[in-house]
Amino acid sequence: GQKTDAKGDFVSLALHDGHLEYRYDLGKGAAVIRNKEKIPLNTWVSVTLERNGRKGQMRINNKEQVTGESPKSRKTPHNALNLKESLYVGGAPDFSKLARSAAISTSFEGSIQKLNIKGFPVLREENILNAIEIATFLGHPCTQKPYPCQNGGLCIPKKESYDCVCQRGFSGGQCEKATIEKSAGSSEAVSFDGKTYLEYHKVTKNQLTNEIPDHAAAENPDDPSEKALLTNEFELSIKTEATQGLILWSGKGTERSDYIALAVVGGYVQMMYDLGSKPVILRSTVPVNTNQWIRIKALRNNRDGILQVGNEA
Question: Which Cys residues form disulphide pairs (predicted)?
Fold first, then answer.
């Protein structure tokens, strides 16, 4: 809120008779946005609150959406929310000091899993100024034994379920897979789960760097730091059931800069590169989302490219 005299601007979310109410006051009166159906008990509910000037909206479980707006003034726009007091979650030390139009007089009984404001996670220990008789909710898999995320993984609650953030070297829904596994003969195969990646820096030794040609390199060929690849050659084997996904990408990492990439698009491998004029795209005709090992060869010589998947001619 803005003041401690039961007046001023405020923003609040509270339960009233089983309904969620999103309220805010910009100085001319409170907006009251209330959902139609009662909130089910003992069930995780996600709530998203938004405000743009006087207009606001509340979304529940990414489905039900309720809108409203605060009163309009003829003289003053009243579009800004002025807040000076602390943010209280779950209750307040003295409800009589809260804005009367918030209509809040009792604390919340239940559990709050996550609170983000503009993407910033609020419910972190380092953000707390004061806490009164707060306990950890023990009815979620992340707080029960056995701990669901293996090999040192971090359990992130996601309503009734959870996501595991794995330590480096592990993947899988419960971090149960090591990312390095022996497969495809005696060579090592690296396993990815759609969220993991490996990053290398200047591993290509041909022509001194792993960059592809640019205009600066052509103008100053004697500067070793500016020399770039005239050719690229990649050879690898993949095994996947996915129809989409990046296999590898190399470039300068800036907008509209040169790059070269391999990706699975629609179940087929594509080779893409841009040397500064326009992108070149080569498409294979051999499907790779068969969960079988298949070899890929990709070659670029200046502006010419060759892509071979399996026994493709």
Answer: 166-175
Distance from C-alpha of 23 to C-alpha of 98, rounded to nearest angstrom: 13
Higher pLDDT, 197 or 146: 146
Q: Tell me where in the chain the CATH 2.60.120.200 domain(s) lie.
A: 10-127, 215-309
* Residue 264 CB neighbours (<10 A): 20
From CA 61, how far away is CA 44, in angstroms rounded?
9
The DSSP line for 106-135 is S---S-----EETTEE---GGG-S--SS--
Integer Cα distance of 207 and 303 in angstroms: 16
Give me the amino acid identity at 170: F
Q: pLDDT-based confidence at 211, cuts 50/70/90? A: very low
- Spatial separation of the C-alpha atoms in residues 274 and 249, rounded to whole Å: 12
Q: Tell the CATH topology of 215-309.
A: Jelly Rolls (2.60.120)
Rounded Cα gap, residues 258 and 212, in angstroms? 7
Q: How far apart are CA 66 and CA 223, in angstroms?
A: 62
Note the pLDDT of residue 179: 66
At residue 262, the pLDDT reads 95
What is the CATH architecture of 136-198? Ribbon (2.10)
Q: Any idea how long the chain is?
A: 313
pLDDT tens-digit series, residues 214-268: 444 434 444 444 445 678 889 899 999 999 999 999 887 666 678 899 999 999 9
8 A C-beta contact, residue 212 and residue 206:
no
Residue 140's pLDDT band (boundaries 50, 70, 90)? very high
Cβ distance 234 to 297 under 8 Å?
A: yes
The listed CATH number (2.60.120.200, 1.20.120.80, 3.40.50.2300, 3.30.70.3400) that belongs to domain 10-127? 2.60.120.200
Task: Give the phi and the psi of residue 256 in degrees, each rounded to 5.
Answer: 60, 30
Residue 185 has what DSSP assignment? Answer: T
SS3 1: coil
